[in-house]
Amino acid sequence: MEAADGHFTGIRVPAIAVKGLTKSFGSHLALRGVEFRVEAGEAVVIFGPNGAGKTTLIKILATIMNPSSGEVIINGLTTRDNAEKIRRGIGVITHQTFLYSNLTAFENLDFYCRLYDVPRPRERIEEVAATVDMTSRLHDRIGTLSRGMQQRLSIARALLHGPSILLLDEPETGLDQQAVAILRQAVTVEKGGRRTVVLTTHNLERGLELSDRLLILARGKIVFEKTTRTLDLSGLKEAYHQYTG
Amino acid sequence: MRRYFLPVLGLILMLVSLYMVFVYVPTEKEMGIVQRIFYLMVPMGWLALLSFLLVFIGSILYLVKRQARWDALAYSSAEVGLVATTGALVVGSLWARPIWGVWWTWEPRLTATLVLWFVYLAYFMVRSFAGEESRGARFAAVIGIVGFIDLPIVVLATTLWRGMHPGGVIFSGGLESRMLLTLLVSLAAFTVLYVVLLNLRLALKNAEMVLKQVQANKSETES
Amino acid sequence: MSFLRKALAITRKDILSEFRTREIIFSALLFALLVIITFNFAFGGSQETLSVVAPGILWVTFTFAGILSLNRSFVAEKEENCLEGLMVAPMSREVIYAGKTLGSLLFMIVIEIIALPVFAILFDLPVFSAQIVTVTLLATIGFVAVGTLFSALAVNTKAREMVLPILFLPVVVPVIISAVEASGLALSGEPWGELAPWLQILGAFDVIFLVVSFWVFSYAIEE
Fold first, then answer.
1. In Å, how far is C15's CA from the nearest CA of chain A?
2. Is there a contact between C82 and A98 if contact means CB atoms under 8 Å apart?
3. Which residue of A has its CA nearest to C7?
4. Which of A181, B122, B135, B220 has its CA 20 to 30 A from that of B49?
5. Contact C96, C217 (CB under 8 A)
């Protein structure tokens, strides 16, 4: 219980701790010893070119994929042994919406409420729908909605169960202006305080805007780490090109 | 010295079994000379099963422990098993021709062997279609486990289907003692052959893995 | 409790989606009817021949219709990019297996409920008996138990739709044999006692493969 709160015998437990993480697909090494920590309430952006291993990393953090070696500790629990418990506290947003096109927005959200044991689903669905400004389209089928609307509903889906950690894998792909604004405000702030956010992107400007700290992932390793306050865009671009070639 | 022990033992056993099959063992009364193919067919069928048992064990251990060597074991055994199963089908067909006058008969054991052959093929196919090595190994392991557990049910169903009662003629006292001895020597010879082939295939598989690792490292330092 | 509730949520979602599109049931049913009619032409239409081959036709039809609908089970999930949505939800992978299996079972039963009367009319056979219903139910459970596992596996391979039948058909050989034999006995008015061995094989297959598939499912779906 203490661990879940982010506190354990007085020492602050990081929201996410990644240790010696490797992932191989046969003889191809996608991740080769990734190490980093994310403190509770911190927003971290991971930059990297295509094929750097960003999606693999997010999938491992989201417990969709198992690492080949190393471990991920989320709120003091290892993903290897506590995947189900950890999934309860995570929301995942990717460029795929995880919504069924034949069902209405409401039916989709209702389905996920059941999977996440959300109490009083009807109220909660209306609440998150209002957050992403989709209340009026709640009973339309997903297939009839625009890409931007679908993405906003995808954000709503990820927020349904009030996760303390949000994992975002290149979420800006296909997002409209409104969705980006929602992402920035509604997503990062939770009732009890700030959410922990891990975001991958190759859009340097947006990444800087959304984060407190940045990491650069290149060829399966973290090669650069800095807080965003001490870095401007031109400095970042320089560092990025230096490390990613 | 040690690495030649099994191949040499296998060779001696093979020669002895050949002598027994062609010279020592008496000709069967009803089927005649063709019946001697029996001493090749039974060991082939036995190897098909033994290989699949190893595939099964390797598959379980791979899924539980996720170590490449268990997959290498299952894979190598499956390759030997596919050869043995193909052999059993060909030999069975050669036997069926003079005895029943047809190349193929839906005799229960032959039918079960055919099903086993298709399961082996599925094992290799799913591996090559998986796109990525470790996924292919995982999928193949699933096939290896499901296929092996299915086998007794297949044998039961095909036996009942042809209206025959389960249980073989081999050890129910229906076999003359010299025939039984010849069969046992053949079985021993082929079992040793299996172990030799499996070891060779495993060594090759390990070499392949080392080579891939070297290539991966090389391409990394170049880039 | 939570396990069952979430599995039912998945089944409910699949049914709801099926109500909108009628994709699986409609296409599999149309396919089944076409197969039945094609066989009718293939076997010349003489009443005597047809009554002999009828059980075979019935089960070939259900097997292929089953492959068609089982394929959709996970292909639809993959095409909608929703499989990962299920995988990040707080539940074990086995919940997905249970929910999907139940959904496919219901779809298959609906297809069979519609196809059987058509079959009865075209072949003039008494298919509405407790025996036929029991055989059909047991065989269908066996189909979806294995089929759901292989469908999840096939969806992550190249040539998705091709992979399922190649994995599925050899493994369900005992189900097909038993279902055909038992249906044949039932159609010729044999008592339950005659069907018993086949029903036992079907029952054993169902139990074994529900357990095994349940256990290995997470390895088939994991990335």
1. 11
2. yes
3. A115
4. B135
5. yes
Q: Is B213's pLDDT higher than 90?
A: no
**CATH code for the domain defined by A40-63+83-244:** 3.40.50.300
- Coil vs helix vs strand at A225: strand
What are the chain C neighbours of B164 within 8 Å (beta carbons)? none
Which residues in chain A show pLDDT less than 50? 1-10
Q: From the CA of A67, how many Å to the nearest CA of chain B?
A: 11
Contact C111, C29 (CB under 8 A): yes
Q: Is the CB of A26 less than 8 angstroms away from the CB of B213? A: no
Contact indicator for A42, A213 with CB cutoff of 8 Å: yes
Distance from C-alpha of C12 to C-alpha of B218, rounded to nearest angstrom: 52
- Buried b / exposed e along A63-99 (16+ C-beta atoms within 10 A): bbbbbbebebbbbbbebeebbeebbbbbbbbbbbbbb
Å from B66 to nearest chain A CA? Answer: 9
pLDDT in tens, B8-64: 888 999 898 888 888 888 877 777 777 788 888 889 999 999 999 999 999 999 999
3-class SS at B29?
coil
Within 8 A of B138 by CB-CB distance, chain C residues are 219-220, 222
**Residue A85 is which amino acid?**
K
- For chain C, the chains sharing at least 3 beta-carbon pairs closer than 8 angstroms are A, B
pLDDT tens for each residue of A35-66: 999 988 888 989 888 778 888 999 999 999 88
> Which residues in chain C land under pLDDT 70?
45
Over its C-alpha atoms, chain C yields an Rg (Å, rounded) of 18
Task: List strand residue ranges (DSSP E) for A154-195, in order.
Answer: 165-169, 189-190, 193-194
Tokens of B87: 């052999």
The CA distance from B186 to A109, in Å, is 66
- If you ran DSSP here, which 8-state letter would residue B28 be given? B
Give the model confidence (pLDDT) of B69-116 as tens digits: 899 999 999 999 999 999 999 988 888 888 778 888 788 888 889 999
Whether residues C157 and B139 touch (CB distance < 8 A) is answered with: yes
Bridge partners (DSSP) listed for residue A224: A216
Q: Is C196 on the interface with B (CB under 8 A)?
A: no
Contacts of C6 in chain A (CB under 8 A): 114-115
Distance CA B42, CA A12 (A): 68
ipTM of the complex: 0.91
Antiparallel, parallel or unpaired: β A11-12 and A7-8: antiparallel
Q: Which of C11, C162, C12 is nearest to C98 (CA)?
A: C11
Q: Where are the domains of chain C?
A: 2-221
